[in-house]
Amino acid sequence: MADETPDDSVPRRRGGRATGTTAPPHAERVYEGLRTQLLRGALPAGERLVEQRLAEQFETSRTPVREALRRLEGDGHLVRDPSGGLRPRVPDVRSMQELYDVRLALEDLVVRRATTSGDRAVLDRLRADWEGMRDERAAAEPGPPPTAFVGADEAFHAGIAEASGNRSAQRFLQEITGRIHVLRVQGFTTEERVDTTIAEHLEILDAIDAGDADVAAAFMRSHIQRYGRVVRQQVGEALARMFEAP
Predict the structure, then answer these.
(1) Residue 158 to residue 106: CA distance in whole angstroms
(2) Per-residue pLDDT at 46 exceeds 90
(3) CATH 1.20.120.530 intervals, the chain
(4) What is the distance, to the nearest Å, from the Cα of residue 153 to the centroid of all Cα atoms in its chain?
(5) Which residues contact 7 (CB under 8 A, 6 or more apart)?
(6) Which of 20, 46, 58, 81 is deepest in the core (most CB within 10 A)?
(7) 223 near 231, Cβ under 8 Å?
(8) Which CATH number is 13-88 given?
(9) What percent of the chain has pLDDT over 90?
(10) CA 83 remoteness from chain centre
(11) What are phi and psi of 118, to 5 degrees?
(12) What are φ and ψ of residue 13, in 5° steps?
């Protein structure tokens, strides 16, 4: 909970040294840790998050905890109850599925337009970005999926919409993306899914460059539907854990 009492605690120490000395900044560490728990459904539905308890758990002061909670609320992972406390958001899977259906129709429209009369500069930029990302991933050591990847994925789809030149479709897609963001993060919790997404994006760009609107649209539809199945599965598993008896 975002309680307002003064933050007079200090980082705990082990062996005379402050913990986290070589770790990322405290707020980022708390954010990443809580975000992981929320995505996995490790925090029970309805559980109120208390700053002091979290500060003790992460061995830090309440200031970075408060900052992390604000970020998680802004991302849509947490909601405020009537008394002002923060709790895990329970996804509304049905309404999200309806938004995915609308998204499919819009993505079909913009990828076809991008193929037949797309802005070449935008498409070239997208290719350079994603080929660069593929090469960086190939050269990097295995590790957890980057937190920012969902933003990169959203930027790819926004770029296709921009290249299409249809401003209305671009605006509607932006609105839908914002509303399903909290669920879309669920799709990038594994290394395999990140690498598959990069390959699928380049596959879509190849079809656009070849000038085949039907193939580009088919690849886009398959990409979104496959991703949607991953999200539904992972959200279902997370929800089951959230509602398990403590």
Answers:
(1) 11
(2) no
(3) 93-242
(4) 9
(5) 61, 62, 63, 66
(6) 58
(7) no
(8) 1.10.10.10
(9) 48
(10) 28
(11) -75, 160
(12) -125, 150
pLDDT-based confidence at residue 194 (cuts at 50, 70, 90): confident
Q: May I ask the CATH class of domain 93-242? A: mainly alpha
Q: How far apart are CA 227 and CA 230, in angstroms?
A: 5
Token pair listed for 244: 């398990």
Range(s) within the chain of domains with CATH label 1.10.10.10: 13-88
Question: Cα–Cα distances in Å, from 209 out to 124, 160, 205?
Answer: 10, 12, 6
Q: Which two tokens stand for residue 203?
A: 């596959």
Q: What is the pTM of this model?
A: 0.66
Cβ 68 vs Cβ 74: under 8 Å = no
Give the torsion through C-alpha atoms of 200, 206, 211, 216, to 10 deg.
Answer: -10
CA distances from 149 to 4, 51, 75 (A): 33, 28, 14
Q: Which two tokens stand for residue 140?
A: 């990097």
C-alpha distance from residue 57 to each of 62, 149, 159 (Å): 11, 27, 41
Question: In which residue are the tokens 């935008």 written?
Answer: 122
